Amino acid sequence: MSTPQHYQSSWRKSSHSSTQTNCVEVRYDNGSSAIRDSKNRSAKHITITPQQWHDFLVAVKVDRFD
């Protein structure tokens, strides 16, 4: 049996932010999501589960945040 390869995508941000550096960036990493602030890319990022990412996106879509 072979060892699964480590999957890591590139950091992504909304196309609406174009060249701005005041954005949230997301990367998918072996089934979890990593999130960082584009203003400080060298700082640590947070990692959340697929369920946490889903719950966050649902909250955004129903306008739970100001």
Describe this structure in words.
There is one protein chain. This protein is an alpha+beta fold and 66 residues long. The chain has one domain. It is built from 1 helix and 3 strands. Strands 1-2-3 form a 3-stranded antiparallel sheet. Strand 2 and strand 3 form a beta hairpin.
What keyword list fits this structure?
alpha+beta; three-stranded antiparallel sheet; 66 residues; 1 helix; globular
Helix coverage percent: 10-25%
Number of domains: 1
What is the number of helices? 1
Strand numbers in spatial order across the main sheet: 1-2-3
Would you count the extended β strands for me? 3
Beta content comes to 15-25%
Shape: globular
N- and C-termini, Cα separation: 50 Å
Helix vs. strand class: alpha+beta
Mean pLDDT: 83
Uncertain stretches:
none
Summarize the biggest pleated sheet.
3 strands, antiparallel
Instruction: Determine Rg (CA atoms, Å).
Output: 14 Å
* H/E element order: EEEH
InterPro entries: DUF397
Protein name: DUF397 domain-containing protein
Organism: Actinopolyspora alba
Pfam family, one: DUF397
Question: What is the topological layout?
Answer:
Layout: E1 24-29, E2 32-37, E3 46-48, H1 50-61
Give a summary of the structure in a few sentences.
The protein has about 70 residues and is an alpha+beta fold. The protein is built from 1 helix and 3 strands. The chain has one domain (about 15-60).
